[in-house]
Amino acid sequence: MAKVVISGTGVFTPPNSISNEELVASFNAYVEKFNTDNKEAIESGEVEALNPSSAEFIYKASGIENRYVMNKEGILDVDVMCPRLPERSNDEPSILAEMSVIAAKEAMARANKKPEDIDAVLVACSNLQRAYPAISIEVQNLLGIDGFGFDMNVACSSATFGLKTAHDMVISGGADCVMVVDPEICTGHLNFRDRDSHFIFGDVCTAIIVERDETCTAEGAWEVLGTRLITQFSNNIRNNFGFLNRTAPETAQDADKLFVQEGRKVFKEVVPMVSKLIIEHATDEGLEPTALKRLWLHQANKGMNDFIGKKVLGREPSVEESPNILKDYANTSSAGSIVAFNKYSDDLKEGDTGVICSFGAGYSAGSVIVRKRA
Ligand code: CO8
Question: What's the whole-number average pLDDT of the chain?
Fold first, then answer.
């Protein structure tokens, strides 16, 4: 069977960052205004008073300290509380395509690849900017790549599902080299007025080049030893935004048209599911899970990753073994594990093995086991 490698990755990080303190100050100003504006209704019991948020809670419950965002002013403006990203004309690159191109160029440079070396572009992410034409075809056009492109969405697991799709296309001979791009503007679908979730997400874009081992000229590439996906239906992470919203205008603006979750339940149900996935996958690949040198896990919650790391390695993972990017990036949906892989893989040695693992809405989870190549 053909050997497949990850030969390069790239990350686009937005220039602006918001700290927990800044986000909480804005949220609490909104709460104060709401409670003042609704004072009488609150006193008469018609309306429930809102509770303030706290930076300490956010860090303790999630490990998040900051998040990069595509627009800071709109999010922090108490009268807006949403990123403001003006609509572009059809002749300009879309925002998702623009960030994709920046991450893609870094991945191509690291993989020593030119546009003519790439056969397919997959855009795999949680929230697509429009129905069609596909963002991937726009990215393909902006980079001057022949071949084909298509978009796919498996929420937080989009990158590993995209990696498996690319891997299988290369194995089958359908393509020799595939680029997977994960542009995530999570703040566009986050309810910044919801105390339970206003702190969770940030924005970023990652890109990955997957190709045949024979064509790889990059130093420090990673052989893909195996890929495994699982899904299991759950309503605990949900977003009911969609093209049919306008057909039911009475509920079109409801809070469920943004990200909603039962965070506690997700935590409890997903940790065992993911630990089992990684342990069984590594074992079936002939590896001792405890011998994995690095866990590039989905970055949703530090506590979750600590639990998974402990189950897989049989002991508390060190900071190096299970890198945490949450403190700077927050949850960036599908891009999180790839940001961790991009930033924390160069130090490993030839022959070292690790796992890129994502998990999230669906539920969905993907495991990609890799070994450092010469
Ligand atoms: N400030 C202060 N206190 C708060 C706040 C706040 N902001 N929010 C809640 N509290 C309080 C609660 O009121 C509660 O108080 P009490 O005990 O008195 O009732 C207490 O804190 C504890 O609340 P929770 O039980 O809700 O808190 P948790 O400890 O469970 O932490 C988390 C909440 C951080 C959300 C945690 O449950 C978690 O991270 N769970 C995992 C979630 C997860 O992994 N989700 C994956 C989703 S991502 C995904 O799949 C991608 C979707 C697509 C992306 C779309 C982009 C928008």
Answer: 97
Question: What is the spatial distance between Cα 277 and Cα 269, in angstroms, rounded to a whole number?
Answer: 13
DSSP run (H or E) holding 149: strand 148-152
The sign of the CA dihedral 156, 158, 159, 161 is positive
Q: What is the pLDDT of residue 251?
A: 97
Shortest-distance Cα residue to atom 21 of ligand 1:
57
Q: Which atom of ligand 1 is nearest to the CA of 195?
A: 7
Q: What is the mean predicted confidence (pLDDT) over 315-341?
A: 97
Which ranges of 129-210 does DSSP label H, i.e. alpha helix?
135-143, 158-172
> How large is the greatest C-alpha to C-alpha distance in the chain, in angstroms?
73
Contact 11, 299 (CB under 8 A): no
Give 71-120 pLDDT, tens digit per residue. Answer: 999 999 999 999 999 999 999 999 999 999 999 999 999 999 999 999 99
- For residue 66, the CA-to-ligand 1 centroid distance in Å is 16
Spacing, Cα 62 to ligand 1 middle (Å)? 8
Report, in this order, helix, strand and coil percent for the chain, each rounded to 5: 40, 25, 40
Is residue 297 pLDDT above 80, yes or no?
A: yes
Q: What percent of the chain has pLDDT over 90?
A: 99
Pull the structure tokens for residue 148: 């084909």
Q: CA 273, CA 144: separation in Å to the nearest integer? A: 41
Considering the four listed CATH numbers 3.40.47.10, 3.30.310.50, 3.40.50.300, 3.60.110.10, the one that applies to the domain covering 222-372 is 3.40.47.10
Domain ranges of the chain: 222-372
Return the residue whose CA atom lies nearest to atom 53 of ligand 1: 155
Q: What are the residue numbers of the active site? A: 156
Q: Which residues line ligand 1 (CB under 6 A)?
A: 53-54, 57-58, 61-62, 126-127, 155-156, 186, 189-190, 195-196, 201, 237, 259, 261, 263-264, 266-267, 300-301, 304, 331, 333, 360-361
Angle between helices 55-62 and 302-313 (to 10 degrees): 20
Strand partners for 75: none
> What is the rounded distance in angstroms from the CA atom of residue 121 to the CA atom of residue 353?
27
Instruction: Report CA(60)–ligand 1 centroid distance (Å).
Output: 11
CA 308, CA 184: separation in Å to the nearest integer? Answer: 24
Report the predicted TM-score, pTM, of the whole model to 2 decimal places.
0.96
